[in-house]
Amino acid sequence: MTKKKEIAIDLNSTWEFAPAPESTAHIKLKKKYDLFINGKFVKPKSGKYFKTINPTTEETLAEVAEAGQEDVDLAVKSARTAYKEWSKLTGKERGKYIFRIARLMQERAREFAVIEALDGGKPIREARDIDVPLAAAHFFYYAGWADKLEYAFPNRKPKSLGVVAQITPWKFPMLMVAWKIAPALAAGNTVVLKPAETTSLTALKLAELFKDAGLPDGVVNIVTGYGKTGAMMVEHPDINKVAFTGSTGVGKIIMKAIAGTSKKSTMELGGKAANIIFEDAPIDQAVEGIINGIFFNQGHVCCAGSRLFIQESVYDLVMRKLKDRMENLVVGDPLDKNTDVGAINSKKQLDVIDNYIKSGIAEGCEIYQPEGSLPKKGYWCKPTLFTNVAQSNKIASEEIFGPVLAIQTFRTVAEVIAKANNTPYGLSAGIWSDKGSKVFNMTSKMRAGVVWANTYNKFDPTSPFGGYKESGHGREGGVQGLEPYLKFE
Ligand code: NAD
């Protein structure tokens, strides 16, 4: 493991950070971020700001406005006013704006990647190679659909919904915002978006880009704040739809709040995915898939392969290779391009993860963590795995949202199907086998919205993503991701 590098901070009027090692680009953050309403950055009527922390250094990166009721009212009003004109534009015109946003995002990819790593703690390599290009790809993809809605939904006369409230989580802050805003705009809606309180900066950077793209004022409004602000959006009478990504607990609160109203909803909630290794799997490839499945983005992934099932006959082999591979993971400074596992997003989440690790030990599971020490400052968790795990153990049944893997074995196909589906969640699953027939059989039996075969955590704007059971309803991505932003005659 590497040691955390010092990040130079200028304490004067703007915060300035040393560039990532291979770059000459300096990223300037503002000291204070205001709300983005009606095409302008405005101070919150609430007068309140909160701090956003760099999880690597525990230093304050910036202060961010906390929107109160009056601010949310203004944002919704601005989106409603903008809707009158935006919804009258032709799909081709809307598509041009969305396309322009995608291009600008590509041009400023480096800035976005650095801010994502600073504010979220994720490795810059992932932000640079996955999050930012994929976010731009979503805008490109939905730009293409904007003038083809009639074709996408033949004989159904698709119409926009109106004003949509969008609430996003702290994992993949930029990508989640792209998953939400791009299809909403393509479908002709206007937006009030709230990013998560610990990772608001890339969404606010995106607001600057919307201005530069000439997006008409009020089409996208960004209000920042805690859950209270999100609840104000959900309960606002002039909202037509709530698109939420976050925990199952908050998803249930939102569903109760909108029950009995005409508001539509999309819920992208938690997960506890099974990653299944059969004895005929390409083992080296599968071990990489296990690593990527659980340690990508520090395990802050709703579809993380957090329950590993290994067929008994290859258990020893897989475990040996897996532990060897874990010893080589670089944990440390997210701005170092060689880092594999960055910082845990917040102290609160680190405590949650630590408590799950303690519960695994207390329940008699066997822990394994690679050698090496962690940086002294910041929020860190070693890549961790547990063996001797029972289905009933908390680490095997509850979503941890951290780099912690619970490992079980199986003998037969029927046994692993029963074990894998024995969860209230149903977001994703992974199958590793050389036999196509086995893969097809398994994919049809897994109660999961996304099933990967001989790969894991692969995303594409053309593919729908979403869950069953307590993992939510509705889909994001693909033509299916447009449908929840439309109504039909
Ligand atoms: P969270 O539910 O705590 O918060 C998500 C967002 O909801 C934040 O912006 C938060 O401020 C807001 N919020 C909190 N209380 C609210 C309320 N009462 N009303 C309205 N908004 C409220 O989730 P999190 O900790 O930010 O994210 C982690 C969770 O998100 C995990 O459970 C993960 O599985 C899930 N997730 C799911 C997907 C998916 O696509 N299914 C994707 C990413 C994350």
Gist?
By secondary structure, the chain is an alpha/beta fold. 37% of the residues lie in helices and 19% in strands. The chain has helices spanning 69-86, 91-107, 109-120, 124-145, 149-152, 173-186, 201-212, 227-235, 248-258, 283-295, 315-327, 347-362, 394-397, 413-420, 436-445; strands at residues 15-17, 27-29, 32-33, 35-37, 40-42, 49-53, 60-65, 158-160, 163-167, 190-194, 220-222, 241-245, 264-268, 274-277, 307-311, 366-368, 384-387, 404-410, 425-426, 428-432, 450-453, 468-469, 472-473, 486-488.
Task: Indicate the low-confidence ranges by residue numbers.
Answer: 1-25
Q: Radius of gyration from the CA trace?
A: 22 Å
Number of strands: 24
Which hetero ligands occur in this complex? nicotinamide-adenine-dinucleotide
Largest sheet: 7 strands, mixed
Share of β-strand residues: 15-25%
Number of domains: 2
- Based on Cα principal axes, name the global outline: globular
Number of helices: 15
**Secondary structure: helix percent:** 25-40%
Distance between the termini: 58 Å
Strand order of the largest sheet: 16-17-18-15-14-20-21
In terms of topology, how is this protein built?
Layout: E1 15-17, E2 27-29, E3 32-33, E4 35-37, E5 40-42, E6 49-53, E7 60-65, H1 69-86, H2 91-107, H3 109-120, H4 124-145, H5 149-152, E8 158-160, E9 163-167, H6 173-186, E10 190-194, H7 201-212, E11 220-222, H8 227-235, E12 241-245, H9 248-258, E13 264-268, E14 274-277, H10 283-295, E15 307-311, H11 315-327, H12 347-362, E16 366-368, E17 384-387, H13 394-397, E18 404-410, H14 413-420, E19 425-426, E20 428-432, H15 436-445, E21 450-453, E22 468-469, E23 472-473, E24 486-488
Parallel strand pairs: 3-7, 9-10, 9-12, 10-11, 12-13, 14-15, 14-20, 15-18, 17-18, 20-21
Antiparallel strand pairs: 1-2, 4-5, 6-7, 8-24, 13-23, 16-17, 19-22
The chain binds nicotinamide-adenine-dinucleotide.
Nicotinamide-adenine-dinucleotide binds at residues 167-171, 194, 196-197, 226-227, 230-231, 234, 245-247, 250, 253-254, 268-271, 302, 399, 401, 427, 467, 471-472.
